[in-house]
Task: structure prediction
Amino acid sequence: MNPDLDLTLHRVIHAPRTRVWNAWTDPDSLACWWLPAPARCRVERLEVRPVGAFVTRMSEDGTEFVPHLDACFLLADRNERLVFTTALDSALRPAAGDILMTAEITLRDHPEGTDYRVLVRHGDPAARARHQELGFEYGWGTVTGQLAAFVENEVRV
Result:
């Protein structure tokens, strides 16, 4: 972790790692929590494997969906770690955008459920600062809270 380049988030989620993993890797589940409410998410492509696509769309009103994320996965270690980047799009072409980043999601066992950590890497201090200005804590914090609520309240039959 480089404090000049990286932003982080940590939370204990009161659910097993497999449930958190499934919420990340199942398109229907991801759509339930991936954007801060009341925005709605549509998962266009979710290929959880190295160089697999990660494409979502968003809607403020639930009718018109606009592009949200066009990224690719770099790593997918089942129930342990996901790494994706916005520096490459889903076609593996160099991306252009306001915030180019690589996000690493780490899941570890915790006595109360899952130790959930997010590390978002940026290429330079200006990109990190821009991401922080645009609301990293609010955005990632909100969706992490929504993820926790989703998996902690999931009913298993």
User: Anything to note?
Assistant: The beta strands are 6-13, 40-46, 53-59, 66-77, 81-85, 101-110, 113-122. The longest strand covers residues 66-77.
